[in-house]
Design brief:
- Helix 11 packs across helix 23 and helix 15 runs antiparallel to helix 17.
- The protein has 24 helices and 20 strands.
- The termini are far apart.
- Among the domains are: 140 residues, Actin, Chain A, domain 4, CATH 3.90.640.10; 168 residues, Nucleotidyltransferase, domain 5 (2-Layer Sandwich), CATH 3.30.420.
- It has a 6-stranded mixed beta sheet with strand order 3-2-1-10-11-20, with helices on both faces.
- The longest helix is centred in the first third of the chain and has 29 residues.
- The protein is α+β, with helices and mostly antiparallel strands and 761 residues long.
Length: 761
């Protein structure tokens, strides 16, 4: 079938007079023409295009004349308004920032992360290398068989050497542990069982500089305050002996005095004196310009003077030096000489250092000590606080650490590896004060041996006398006969016999009556080279502070208050904000300040006080007194207020807080504007609280927190327990993230300590 063509419309065939299509078909004819032109490729002539371009230029000129005439023409300015690029506006509805919110943005944390990645990568590479060596088939080549065996042996030897080096580093054989104390410094490797103890003193030739201002003991017995304190001390001693039913002969002191008056020394021949001390007599042309440690204390010459770089634990001896750099220089000289002489360490740049610092530290001391060690070319330095190191050495996680040193006594509470800031206190008395008091009591009993307290030879013998005879054991307090040998530098030794009575217990009891120590003249020293750590914004001191330090300075102790006054302080949070730094001497009774420290450490959670009372750890060279733990337990039980000794005190405090909040809501105290009305309601609230307290104390029976003093673990000397804990710290994996390197210190300085210590610096 074929398609039938459709007939065309007559309108399409009928042309107009001029040959154009009808009006109804104009659009179709135009489109046809365009299609035909496009099909044939016909272009517009150049003449027409030129005419159009000229027309556009004329129109633009005409428009420019009109704009210029109206005064709104555009002028180009080549100068920029600002060199800053304008940024996009912030969307106020949804904007955020991640500045300092990621660890990668902090250099120290980024570097710590890189150390971990490097360790993982090295382990992975070592594992892959070992697996590759195991899976690689051995190709036997007759000509190179011996060479392959040698290569394998060399590779194995190198691998073993690397493993041994890594193991040695992990064990701390390349780590030196430094513990500067009040008078001595303890130094040893991290792998050593015990450290070596040296007096932190240097003997230098005298120059034209003024002599050292040495403390002098005040022998003024007419001081009324001192007499009153001695009366209290004797009264307490007699009450204690009476309580434990120890008999005291009424004329014991007279017997001792009369015997000591008649004693004459016995001369010991040199060949019979097996413990004779050898003294150093420098020659005028001696090349050695200084002596350190024990050698400095054995110099028999007036041409040398002794200088202690540290006047106290954590404080530089600024009063005896002409410049601050001189102190740091002698510290570096001391450490370098000791390492070369006693440890045969000459390449210091191969070793790292762990430095033990005080709990209530001085930032100036810490930063300058670290800077000095890094300038000595040690690889890196890590720091740890004394109380935390003591808990590491004792193997406990929570404890009340009592550190009795030569010149200071420090107390801190450690809770699960963190020192509680408000529990820290530094008291300015120690073993040296007990030595002075012991000698004074002996001289009151006509002690036959005369000593000069400013002479280092005599002072060393007095310390031996104290360590040998003082005790807290009540059963030993009778008239007893002892003997002691007095040695001289250029004379034969003399042996004396003497009797003692209560002097052996009264001297150490000064820890509980510190005013009897009668601190030496010049104890408050001023220095022209003193440096202080100041805040960069307000110019005030930024050293750490403590509420317990403030309480000790103001003598505002819980042991001296009644239970109701203590309760008012406990429920008032503002009392914790009153803090003080360790910037001048403070003394307080040891038993009372321990109670205060534990109370302040438990303010936010009183359930922790049980752990603190049951784990009292006594360390330090001044703590080596017989039965110190026994008398300390007794005196804490005597002076601890009843409200602080109860196990269910936390529940009672919650009850009081709920009662106070309900009372304030009921009477709408926050809306009252009259101070008189508020005061009346507060007095009513206090009356209610006092009534609740009396009921609480009367109903509680036999629910007292026990007190326990921990013995030194594994019979370790308590004076080295802190160093032992620091050596344990030096072998932990954690310390790899706490090393302060030269790069860290040069880049950030003291700001590095914010990220590389275990406490809030």
């Amino acid at each position: 079938m074929s398609e039938t063509p459709q007939p065309l419309s007559p309108t399409n065939e009928t042309p107009t007079a001029n040959g154009s299509p009808a009006p109804g078909g104009g659009s179709s004819s135009t489109s046809k023409n365009k299609k035909q032109n496009s099909q044939t490729g016909k272009k517009v002539s150049a003449e027409i295009l030129e005419r159009r371009r000229v027309g556009r230029l004329k129109a633009a000129e005409t428009m420019a004349k009109k704009i210029k005439k109206s005064g709104i023409e555009k002028r180009e300015n080549p100068l920029k308004f600002s060199t800053f690029e304008s940024g996009n506006l912030i969307n106020q509805k949804n904007y955020f920032t991640d500045y300092l919110k990621k660890d990668d943005q902090i250099f120290i944390l980024r570097d710590r992360k890189q150390i971990r990645l490097n360790k993982v990568q090295s382990k992975t590479n070592n594992t892959n290398t070992s697996l590759k060596n195991e899976n690689t088939p051995s190709v036997s080549t007759p000509l190179n068989e011996d060479e392959d065996d040698l290569d394998d042996e060399e590779v194995e030897a190198e691998a073993e050497a690397e493993v041994e080096e890594i193991e040695e580093d992990k064990l701390g054989s390349k780590t030196i542990v430094l513990h500067p104390g009040s008078k001595n410094i303890r130094i040893g490797l991290g792998t050593d069982v015990y450290p070596k103890t040296f007096p932190f003193v240097l003997a230098l030739p005298k120059k034209s500089t003024p002599p050292i201002k040495t403390p002098e003991f005040n022998n003024d017995d007419d001081d009324e305050i001192l007499k009153e304190n001695f009366k209290n001390l004797n009264k307490d001693f007699k009450e204690r002996m009476r309580y434990y039913k120890r008999r005291i002969l009424p004329n014991s002191n007279e017997v001792v005095t009369n015997f000591n008056k008649k004693i004459k020394p016995e001369i010991i021949p040199e060949h019979n004196d097996i413990h004779k001390q050898e003294y150093i007599k420098p020659i005028n042309n001696d090349d050695k310009s200084f002596y350190i440690g024990n050698d400095a204390l054995r110099i028999d010459s007036d041409d040398y003077r002794l200088r202690y770089p540290l006047i106290n634990n954590g404080k530089f001896n600024e009063s005896d030096y002409n410049s601050f750099e001189e102190i740091l220089g002698e510290i570096q000289l001391f450490i370098k000489t000791i390492l070369e002489k006693e440890f045969q360490i000459s390449k210091i740049n191969q070793y790292k250092v762990v430095l033990v610092i005080p709990d209530l530290y001085d930032k100036n001391y810490v930063e300058n000590f670290i800077d000095s060690l890094l300038k000595m070319s040690f690889q890196s330095v890590a720091i740890i606080q004394e109380s935390l190191a003591a808990t590491y050495g004792a193997g406990v996680s929570s404890s009340t650490v009592v550190d009795i040193g030569a010149k200071s006594t420090k107390i801190s509470c450690v809770d699960e590896g963190m020192i509680i800031p408000n529990s820290r206190v530094n008291l300015n008395y120690g073993g040296d004060d007990i030595t002075r008091l012991f000698y004074k009591l002996l001289k009151n009993s006509e002690f036959p041996i005369n000593y000069d307290l400013n002479n280092e030879f005599d002072w060393a013998e007095l310390n031996q006398l104290k360590e040998k005879f003082i005790t807290f054991q009540d059963a030993n307090i009778t008239v007893q006969l002892y003997n002691f040998t007095k040695r001289y530098a250029n004379q034969l030794s003399e042996k004396y016999e003497f009797k003692v009575f209560d002097e052996v217990i009264l001297a150490p009891m000064g820890l509980f009556f510190p005013k009897v120590f009668n601190k030496p003249i010049g104890f408050h020293s001023e220095s022209s080279i003193k440096r202080e750590s100041l805040d960069v914004y307000n110019g005030n001191s930024n050293n750490p502070t403590s509420t317990t330090q403030k309480n000790a300075f103001d003598n505002n102790l819980f042991a001296n208050k009644i239970d109701f006054e203590i309760l008012k302080d406990l429920i008032n949070p503002d009392t914790l904000d009153d803090t003080k730094e360790d910037d001048f001497p403070t003394i307080a009774s040891l038993d009372k300040i321990i109670i205060q420290s534990i109370a302040n450490a438990s303010r936010y959670d009183f359930t922790k006080s049980k752990n603190f009372y049951e784990n009292i750890l006594i360390v330090g060279g001044g703590s080596k007194i017989e039965s110190l733990d026994f008398i300390l337990t007794d005196r804490i039980n005597i002076w601890r207020p009843k409200i602080l000794a109860l196990l269910n005190l936390p529940d009672f405090l919650k009850k009081i807080e709920l009662l106070s909040s309900n009372f304030e809501k009921e009477h709408e105290l926050s809306k009252l504007q009259s101070e008189e009305e508020v005061q009346v309601l507060q007095d009513q609230l206090l009356e209610i609280i006092e009534k609740e307290l009396n009921e609480f104390l009367s109903t509680v029976n036999n629910q007292v927190i026990p007190i326990e003093v921990l013995p030194a673990p594994r019979e370790i000397d308590p004076s080295i327990l802190t160093w032992k804990g620091a050596s344990v710290f030096s072998r932990l994996k954690l310390i790899e993230e706490l090393w302060i390197t030269h790069h860290d210190w040069d880049l950030l300085g003291s700001r590095t300590l914010q990220y590389k210590v275990l406490f809030n610096y």
